Amino acid sequence: MKSKKWNGYARVKYPVSSSLHPFNFFVPIVERVRDGVVSIVTEDTHQTDNVEDLIRSLVSDQQPFASERSYGSGFLFHPKGYILTSEHVIGKSRTILVKLFNGRVFEAQRVLADRVRDYAVIKIDADCKLFPLPLGTSSDTKVGEWVISIGSPPVAIAANRLMRSCQKHPK
């Protein structure tokens, strides 16, 4: 490739030096949609059917019910706080927390879930501007087109801190 064509790329201010490559067109796409992508942390309590575990919990400080967390992502598709995610992310969880790109955290309510198709709709009541992403249709796509999956799963340690802080300071 002639240096004349590379000059156009060299003059552009890229956010990261690694994005200088002309075929690295994913960076601008991610930057355009990142405000609509959310992290999701859920917590569920599972009861045990094992009698020995139940007796052990009664005579010790051990809790009788194990708490399980799930992590995933989703995206805002409506300005009133509706989020599309996977059903396996929220499952039968009793607490669903959503973290926006700006760092704000909200508790979400389950609206709709379909285990067979593995999708779920949850809703947050946010007191800030939300940036929903447009939904596409399969009729607009063609076989062979590229697809990008953009998610925002949190690191487990940060998610555990988030759950503990929300339990200490409920709404």
Average the pLDDT over all residues and give the rounded result.
Answer: 76
As a whole number of angstroms, the C-alpha radius of gyration is 21 Å
Global morphology: elongated
The largest sheet has its strands arranged as: 1-2-3-6-5-4
State the separation between the terminal residues, measured CA to CA: 59 Å
CATH class of one domain: Mainly Beta
Model regions low in confidence, pLDDT < 50 over at least 5 residues:
1-10
Q: H/E order of the elements? A: HHEHEEHEEEH
Structural overview:
InterPro entries: Peptidase_S1_PA, Peptidase_S1C. This is S1C family serine protease. GO terms for molecular function: peptidase activity. The protein contains 5 helices and 6 strands; from the N terminus they run ααβαββαβββα. With 171 residues, the protein is of the alpha+beta class. It has a domain at 39-134: Trypsin-like serine proteases (Thrombin, subunit H, Beta Barrel). β4 and β5 (105-114) form a beta hairpin. The longest helix is centred in the C-terminal third of the chain and has 13 residues, at 156-168. The chain is elongated. Mean pLDDT is 76; it is low at 1-10.
Spell out the key features of this protein.
25% helix; alpha+beta; 6-stranded antiparallel β-barrel; S1C family serine protease; Thrombin, subunit H; protease; 171 residues; 5 helices; disordered N terminus
